[in-house]
Amino acid sequence: MNKKLSIITINYNNCEGLRKTMKSVLSQKAFEAFEYIIVDGGSDDGSLDLIKSFSDRVTRWVSERDKGIYNAMNKGVLLAEGEYCLFINSGDVLHDSDVINNVFPRLGGVGFVIGRVKLLKNGELSRANDPLTMQCFYNGSIPHPATFIRRDLLMSCPYDESYKIVSDWKFTIQKIVIENVSYKLIDTIISDYDCNGVSSVNTGFVNEERRRVYAELIPERILLDYRKFYDGEGYTNTLYDNFFIDLREYRRFSSVIYSLDVFLMRVIAIFRKSAKFANRYPLRRN
User: Fold this and answer.
1) Rounded CA gap, 171 and 38, in Å?
2) Residue 1 reports pLDDT greater than 50
3) What backbone phi and psi angles, to 5 degrees, belong to 238?
């Protein structure tokens, strides 16, 4: 009988990261409720020996050269038999041993079940906005290591392997925004995310690939409005407009900066009014 959930880990020459990931998955209290699949890219750093040492607890595994992250993920989906897939790649870990126990009863009915991620570098929590609109994806993404995806969606629309970093982001735009596939947000921390992954350290390449996705999926007339609002394209080139455009890069401090800016603007306005009053009614000596 097929399991309801397939947890998939992809790995390449990250033996210590894989060890942490496997430990978190294999220590789940609901271990019998899911299958565990590992797709290794032909590692030569001891990863294969590690996988073999747990072969009695790993449902299926493969170790062979692949064509990149998304080729490995697609292999994992083809090996999976669960109704839902969760990708926990080497270096990432499930938040605690009760994660699957808590989430399992909530799987079913919708295309995506989306939880929260804890960022290991600073302890911050990442979550998806509700409702999930194109605005959410233009300005961010959903936390992939906390997203349970119905496998039939991945079978009918595999990750686009022509992209190296943002194919999962493209997939969610296609399904959630364009095809209006259903989703459910849950306030549960699913995984602790290793911020040293390829998408976290190659921001320039990420932006380049995102522009390709926009060109492929989103009509230019729609993109134009988003560029005007988020990137400032089409705005008047004034210091005031550019300040608020740049402010979006500092979201953690934006409320404080905004309050200071409003205060300064009001002080300046008072001085301007005072100057106009003084010019209109100058003090005269008797």
Assistant:
1) 22
2) no
3) -115, 160
Separation of alpha carbons 278 and 286, rounded Å: 17
What would the DSSP string read from start to end of 101-170?
HHHGGG-SSSSEEEEEEEETTT--EE---SS--HHHHHS----GGGEEEEHHHHHHS---TT-SS-HHHH
The CA distance from 24 to 65, in Å, is 25
CA 37 to chain centre: 22
Residues 16 and 46: their CA atoms lie apart, in Å, by 9
Contact 85, 113 (CB under 8 A): no
103-128: per-residue pLDDT in tens? 999 999 899 999 999 987 777 777 78
Burial class (CB in 10 A: 0-12, 13-18, 19+), 2: exposed
β-strand pairing of 147-150 with 84-87: antiparallel
pLDDT digits (tens, 9 = 90+) for 134-160: 988 987 899 999 999 999 999 999 999
Higher pLDDT, 252 or 277: 277
- Tens of pLDDT, residue by residue over 235-261, are 555 565 556 556 655 555 656 666 776
Residue type for position 140: G
CA distance 12 to 191: 20
